[in-house]
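Because discrete structure vocabularies remain unfamiliar, we first show an illustrative case, written as a sequence plus integers encoding its fold.
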Amino acid sequence: MQTNPAAKRILCYGDSNTRWRVPLWMGLKRYDASNRRPAILQEMLWDHYEIIEEWLWGRTTMFDDPRPEFPERNGLKTLPIMLESNLPLDYVILMLGTTDTKEMMDISSEATTEGMRKLIQTIKWSKVLEWTSAPKILLVVPPIVQETADFASKLFKGWTEKANKLVETYATLAQKEQILFCDPTKEVSVDDHDGVHIDAANHKKLAEILFNKITEEKWSS
């Protein structure tokens, strides 16, 4: 919790790559604060900002997981709750799309982009407190899945092509919606054996990229 009353509040809304999942551990091992992106970002921003981690492994943009043992993965359904429970918010960082294109989901990159558009609209029209306005939005392209890797090959056949398409469709969406956009995919890569999740070194790289984006004049003004 940030105790500086003047700190700007940033909600990080995403899936397992937003916070904790260590590659190849099937969710049984999590990164500690020194090795996960939101916590690293918090340390870099010091007390001028408050980072709020809101992640759920397997979260999609707007689709339900067909498996009953994975409820509430639909990001569009849960986003309004997260927005209102964390008021006031100055910024929201969105990094979703990986889970949408699991082979079993049978969802196109265009449908994923439409899901992201609805998330953006939800934020723009979200409830605000008196004397505040809707938060600014930063759309981040998720790391490109390598579908031939050990873990990814079991669930993400065909994902790499769809993931590469998201770079273009997300950029176009951000331009249309007049929100901030970040494509870290040339600098941040997934674990070679896992193929889906980023390791500690790449969490740090992503935190540094987002730090530079956040501290740009047009974001912080």
Summary: The mean pLDDT is 89. The two ends are 23 Å apart (CA to CA). DSSP finds seven helices and five strands in the chain.
